[in-house]
Amino acid sequence: MKKLGLLIATAFLLVACQSAYYEAAEKVGVHKRDILVDRVENARDSQADAEEQFQSAQEQLLALIDFDGGDLQDVYEDLNDEYEDSVDAAEEVSSRIAAIEDVAEALFDEWEEEIEEYTNATFKADSKRKLRETQSRYNGLLKSLKKSEARMDPVLAALKDNVLYLKHNLNASAVASLKVEFGKIDKDITALIAEMRKSIAQSDAFIESMQAS
User: Fold this and answer.
1) Contact at 8 Å (CB) between 192 and 159?
2) Rounded-to-integer distance, Cα 198 and Cα 47, Å
3) Which of 14, 96, 159, 170 could form a disulfide with 83 if both were Cys (CB 3.0 to 4.6 A apart)?
4) pLDDT tens for residues 20-62?
5) Is the pLDDT confidence value at 15 over 90?
6) Which residue windows are coiled coil (predicted)?
């Protein structure tokens, strides 16, 4: 119960901190809409970095499969470095997506509340329409972001399995065993990269639509 209470208190503190941040930003002319666009840009950039990192890990796996003599310890260390860098890249992407969700929720809640303050029926209807359009575009973006995020976990798990197996079996037979598994992880990484590129393109489209309107 104490742990649950601590988690709840931490959650409330985080919400309070975010609210204070948004209020402070508003006072200097930076609105939640601007923060949302900025955070989508950050997420897009972190996905681009993650894409490069997973490609690098894929290339290192290929080097392992093509191994033809030398020091397997060096190969293991290189692959382990790629795995750890991939974990860091994935965590950064997830953090950026969470930040987008936070400000989007605050933006849409505020927008809905302010719509009720209109006395002009035309303005009120127009604002409702724009809110629905923005929410629709955002939901499409979030779905794409979440889809690419979900593809990272099985790739990371497979990378970890390969790293651990090689660590415990630094010999030619281990490489032969990993060759059998390479096809699936190679396919998964390729699919992940393709999904990330779709998400990056959708982020660009969302940013453009927000700036245009």
Assistant:
1) no
2) 11
3) 159
4) 788 777 778 788 999 999 999 999 999 999 999 999 999 999 9
5) no
6) 33-151
Same domain, 164 and 142: yes
Say whether both 5 and 109 belong to one domain: no
pTM for the model: 0.87
Same domain (yes/no): 37, 21: no
User: Quick one: 91 and 160 in the same domain?
Assistant: yes
Domain housing 51: 33-212
Instruction: Provide the token pair at 107.
Output: 């933006």
**Cα(93)–Cα(6) distance, integer angstroms:** 26
Tell which residue, 33, 149, 152, has the closest CA to residue 85. 152
- Using the 8-state DSSP alphabet, how is residue 169 labeled? -
- Domain identity same for 78 and 136: yes
CB 168 within 8 A of CB 22: no
Same domain, 136 and 54: yes
For the chain, helix (H) and strand (E) counts, in that order, are: 5, 0
Do 21 and 98 have their domain in common?
no
Nearest to 35 by CA among 50, 49, 18: 18
Query: Strand runs (DSSP E) across 3-151, as ranges?
Result: none
